[in-house]
TrEMBL record, chain A:
Designated name of the protein: aminomethyltransferase
SUPFAM superfamilies, per the entry: Aminomethyltransferase beta-barrel domain (SSF101790), Folate-binding domain (SSF103025)
Organism: Roseobacter denitrificans (strain ATCC 33942 / OCh 114)
Keywords, sorted A to Z: Aminotransferase, Methyltransferase, Transferase
E.C. designation(s): 2.1.2.10
Sequence ranges assigned to domain GCVT N-terminal in this UniProt record: 9-260
One GO term (biological process): glycine catabolic process
Family: Belongs to the GcvT family.
Enzyme type, top EC level: transferase
Binding residue positions for substrate: E198
Domain Aminomethyltransferase C-terminal: residue ranges: 289-368
Upper classification of the organism: Bacteria, Pseudomonadati, Pseudomonadota, Alphaproteobacteria, Rhodobacterales
Catalytic activity: N(6)-[(R)-S(8)-aminomethyldihydrolipoyl]-L-lysyl-[protein] + (6S)-5,6,7,8-tetrahydrofolate = N(6)-[(R)-dihydrolipoyl]-L-lysyl-[protein] + (6R)-5,10-methylene-5,6,7,8-tetrahydrofolate + NH4(+)
Signal peptide stretch: none
Cited NCBIfam families: gcvT (TIGR00528), PRK00389.1 (NF001567), PRK13579.1 (NF010093)
UniProtKB/TrEMBL annotation, chain B:
Cofactor note: Binds 1 lipoyl cofactor covalently.
Name the record gives this protein: Glycine cleavage system H protein
CDD domains for this protein: GCS_H
InterPro entries the record matches: 2-oxoA_DH_lipoyl-BS, Biotin_lipoyl, GCV_H, GCV_H/Fam206, GCV_H_sub, Single_hybrid_motif
Positions of post-translational N6-lipoyllysine modification: K57
The gene coding this protein: gcvH
Organism: Roseobacter denitrificans (strain ATCC 33942 / OCh 114)
Amino acid sequence: MTRLKRTPLFDLHAELGAKMVPFAGYEMPVQYPMGVMKEHLHTRGRAGLFDVSHMGQVLLSGPSWDAVALAFEALVPVDVLGLADGRQRYGFFTNDAGGIEDDLMFSRRGDALFVVINAGCKDADLALMRAGLPDDITLTELSDRALLALQGPAAGSVIASLDARAAAMRFMDTCELSLCGHTVWASRSGYTGEDGFEISVHADEAVALAQRLVEDAEVAPIGLGARDSLRLEAGLCLYGNDIDAATGPVGAGLSWAIQKVRRPGGARAGGFPGSKAIFDEIAQGPATKRVGLRPEGRAPMRQGVALFASAEGGAQIGSVTSGGFGPSVQGPVAMGYVDTDFATTGTALWGEVRSKRMGLKVVDLPFVPAGFKR
Amino acid sequence: MKFTEEHEWLRPDGDEIIVGITTHAAEQLGDVVFLELPEEGTTVSKDDEVVVIESVKAASDILAPIDGEITEVNTALADNPGAVNEDPQGEAWFFKMKPSDPSQMDDFMDEAGYQAFIA
């Protein structure tokens, strides 16, 4: 067994009473003494601090912005070249079959590209980039940086109290801030559906900054348990659950991330792995679609629950990919894939839980309106 | 009151036994959000799955501690599953059962034994 890795905040988690669990090769806090339910509601009501240092941080640099952006466009179906300095975008690496190898956030820092990738895919992503990028692009894994996420309606005022420049940042803006003497790279984004910031800070300074943030009366430390229920209520995909190498962006409802310029007829159409399969799916429509699901009873329907069109018999028409209890919704919520014929909002379906079929409805995502600062 | 290694408590109540889960178990489960309770009148054997308890993160089964008949179910828990976290060894009992062999109770731990078991 390989030894689990620890983030720079490991000792602080222990001090704050976290229950630690193995996650993507790391020992991570799943919850603090407050408990998942209260942590979730605290984040929606005030602000939650998450340690996401297990995620990969990578800097791509090269002879010019155009060179870096065009090189990265060979790996993602996203408009990279058109990204303004100080702006961030969501994207994903695709494979030759049009499946998703990982999803990611990237931002422009002058002529360089700062990329944040999932912990579980880090090694594969690095290999994919090293193999796919030309020699004049330098890839630097920033393993000396920690990543904190401060999420929730109070996040803006908390960060602005430390550096007033934060107040001017809009959703998906990124810039350098000085927080209590620590120079950080901040983006106004996150993965909870709330307003918030992701803060890349030097590993040596991460504990001091995290301590300062949790001292604020508005801020509580939040674990991976609540991070999962928050992103589920926000309708956001978890890589490995809701999207993976066998699912394409169109059926996953992520076509919005493929800008016109990269689609057929666009100035830089295609040129990424699986472009033909993805363009075919855009033209013909996907066979299965990711949908929001609201179970009718109180029983949660979790990942793997089989979905049917009728209360008895019939072939399986889909399955749940993420599901659980939504603390803000005060009931069970789920996402899953269903045959396109059954993907219309309002469609009544049945999920098989412990050999019994229970009703659920196809609903619009997200379950909780987003609080982004547009 | 007796305790099982599966973190259930059993409290004799006349010729019936009241069954719930321990404070330790409730703490381990975290926030309870849903309970599937048995039907009154069901005959169960020791180790039958009688209750499904869902916390925010996972579903767990509660097993029948002894043979017998379920005589009463705490239906108030259906509307307020969070009571399991608030008062697991009091208000939030799961069901009452009439044991077919009360001597099965002798196998279980007393409070001191259970505290040592979870320590």
